[in-house]
Design brief:
122 residues, mainly alpha, 5 helices, 66% helix
Length: 122
């Protein structure tokens, strides 16, 4: 029996976005590992505390140095097969998201009809 080309279910923009996020995450972890795993010597508890403190600092002042530190810390967490304790810094994450939304809306000159809200609410 001859089969035609495989039919793949169409993906939504959301699925494409999630795929891009996962690919980006893996690239960041690989880059961190290639640079020598600067945080490898930290215990899990110290690593988690450093990550939480960095997230709280980013919520107050999202500067490039803090963002780079957070990315390295979460890369070390993920390289160990662990998951960052996101629930413990929910307020900080919400503050970062709110700031990002405000920034995007300012750039677009729009309100709740921005691409970000359309994406989140779809």
């Amino acid at each position: 029996m001859q089969q035609g080309p495989s039919k793949r279910a169409p993906t939504s923009e959301y699925d494409d976005f999630l795929g891009w996020l996962e690919s980006t995450r893996l690239d960041r972890v690989a880059d961190y590992v290639q640079r020598g795993r600067r945080n490898v010597g930290l215990s899990n508890d110290v690593l988690f505390e450093a990550w939480k403190q960095t997230m709280r600092s980013i919520a107050k002042d999202p500067n490039p140095e803090l963002i780079a530190r957070e990315q390295d810390l979460v890369a070390e967490i993920e390289a160990r097969g662990l998951i960052a304790p996101y629930a413990e810094v929910k307020d900080a994450i919400e503050a970062v998201i709110s700031r990002a939304v405000q920034y995007v809306e300012k750039l677009e000159g729009t309100s709740n009809n921005s691409w970000f809200w359309r994406f989140c609410l779809s």
